[in-house]
Amino acid sequence: MAVFAGKESKGTAPIKRLKIERYGQTPELLEALIKWPTVLEGLSFQPMCAWSIGRSGLFDRWSFAVLQPILEVQMANLQELSIPDLDVGDVQNLDLSGFKMLEVLRLPSTLTGYNREDIPRLVSPNLRLFEWKIATWDSETEEQANDFGQAQEDWVYSMFWGG
């Protein structure tokens, strides 16, 4: 992986899409990976989260606060973004409103929560598809949660109709 660490590799790869699963390295190395493609159009990022698989990688505090500056490296190019899991769901630290090319966004409700005040930062100017995975199983109580309640309905309404 040291091959990505040098400045000479920045913007040299013809890769247009990255799918990174069970990522166990550091934010610095992730940033080098994101900088490597000349134009990165699609990114799916899932770190190795200790809570979901029982162990973490070299870094175990993945959050939107950590990811935001890394994503901004390809802000002008990203068309599709998927983040299915993080250690911390601090969506108030995610701002995609300046990602003018972003058309597809996939996030789970476990990371977005249901605070409607966070929505304007999630909506990029050209967003066409928003895939919102709703958790329906509560692993702490081992019970089926309400699939889609009033909080979720209000959030979706606000997402698309600004209400």
Q: On the 0-100 scale, what is the average pLDDT?
A: 87
Order of helices and strands: EHEHHEEHHEEEH
What's the CATH class, please? Alpha Beta
Q: Beta-strand level of the residues, as a percent range?
A: 15-25%
Low-confidence stretches: none
- From the 3D coordinates, which CATH architecture would you assign? Alpha-Beta Horseshoe
Oligomeric state of the chains present here: single chain
Count of distinct strands: 7
Structural category: alpha/beta
Based on Cα principal axes, name the global outline.
globular
Distance between the termini: 47 Å
- Count of structural domains: 1
Examine the coordinates and then state which fold CATH places here, giving the name of the CATH topology.
Leucine-rich repeat, LRR (right-handed beta-alpha superhelix)
**How is the main sheet built?**
5 strands, parallel
- What is the helix content? 25-40%
Count of separate DSSP helical elements? 6
Radius of gyration: 16 Å
Adjacency order of strands in the biggest sheet: 1-2-3-4-5
